């Protein structure tokens, strides 16, 4: 039994009998690659359970990790390609940076 595994998104392609476990994180910029590895490791048991219980042929764990001020790992393009998402990494980085700036402004203006 797998406990405490709650991925952000699970995509099931019934015809292909495949599944993608997607988890998003926004850690501090120095922890991006470590968090990416942690996400993949944390969901290995869930991946195996999905293969057994749902009869999937292929189950992938895809971490999308962007640092609070936009840092990404060298693997981000590969993860996005596996998802079939056509988006520039720069847009994701800008979104993370603007979100962090918004949080800081709210905190400072308290």
Q: What keyword list fits this structure?
A:
110 residues; alpha+beta; 3-stranded mixed sheet; 45% helix; elongated
Distance between the termini: 45 Å
Number of helices: 4
The percent range for helix content is: 40-55%
Class based on secondary structure composition and strand pairing = alpha+beta
- Radius of gyration, in angstroms, nearest whole number: 16 Å
Strand order of the largest sheet: 1-2-3
What ranges have pLDDT less than 50 throughout 5 or more consecutive residues? none
SS elements, strand count: 3
Outline the biggest β-sheet: 3 strands, mixed
In what range is the share of β-strand residues? 15-25%
Silhouette:
elongated
- Tally the structural domains: 1
Taken in chain order, the helices and strands follow as EEHHEHH
Mean pLDDT: 92
Describe this structure in words.
By secondary structure, this protein is α+β, with helices and mostly antiparallel strands. It has helices at 32-42, 44-54, 76-83, 89-108; strands at residues 9-13, 18-25, 58-65. Strands 1-2-3 form a three-stranded mixed beta sheet, sandwiched between helices. The longest helix is centred in the C-terminal third of the chain and has 20 residues, at 89-108. The N and C termini lie far apart (45 Å).
């Amino acid at each position: 039994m797998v406990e405490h595994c709650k991925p952000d998104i699970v995509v099931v392609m019934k015809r292909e009998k495949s599944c993608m476990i997607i988890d998003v994180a926004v850690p501090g910029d120095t922890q991006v690659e470590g968090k990416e590895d942690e996400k993949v490791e944390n969901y290995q048991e869930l991946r195996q359970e999905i293969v057994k219980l749902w009869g999937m042929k292929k189950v992938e764990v895809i971490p999308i990790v962007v640092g609070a001020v936009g840092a990404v790992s060298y693997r981000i393009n590969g993860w996005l390609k596996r998802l079939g998402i056509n988006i520039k990494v720069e847009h994701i980085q800008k979104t993370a940076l603007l979100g962090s700036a918004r949080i800081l402004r709210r905190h400072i203006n308290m």
